[in-house]
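Explain this one:

_____
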Amino acid sequence: MNIDDESVVQFLKEAPDFFLHYPGLLAGLKLPDPATGKALSLHERQLQVLREKLKALESRIVEMGRAATENQAIIQKLQSWQRALLKEKNASAIPAIIEEELARLFAIPLVCLRLWPTGNSSVHESYVLDADDASRKQIDAMKMPYCGPSAGVALDVWLKGRPSHAASVALIPIRIGFAPTALGLLVLGSPDPGRFSPDAGVDFLVSISEIASASLSRLLV
């Protein structure tokens, strides 16, 4: 009598206690090793599978630990940056601190803050950019920071003559709270295409946006 694989599978599903009645069958079962092709007993194969799962879990734990360490380092740098902003008594110095401390703490080659004209004379002209309506609307439409390749991003519009060799960028709108319109833009750039990767997430960039916007509120509102 010919029995196909599906029939055997169906039978074992319907009789889960089959091997309890015939324990000797398990000891005699042989399975091929996927790596070597060598025949292994069922118990040996089960141990092999468990070892592989344990190795994968260990690798995952190491990876999670590394990510946690990196995140903690980023948090500490954000706190240092925030402390520098909070300690500054001269509000007009805030834009410079935003740029200089971000560049120093995070080793970012390009940090450029641009604010729309507000009539506030305490904002140095080097940080003011009278962007056209289309450019402003583009930033207004950004509900989250952009993080990715610089290709297609009109960096010359935002950098206002500042040279850039950025292959990847982060564009961070400056807005107070949940205001629909932005008050400016913070540009981060790197020649490393993977520094600001689209799949890296934007949680820390959102924190940078909130901290910078709150600090600049002394100048812009």
Q: What stands out?
A: Strands lie at 30-32, 39-41, 110-115, 146-149, 168-174, 184-190. The mean pLDDT is 84. The longest strand covers residues 168-174.
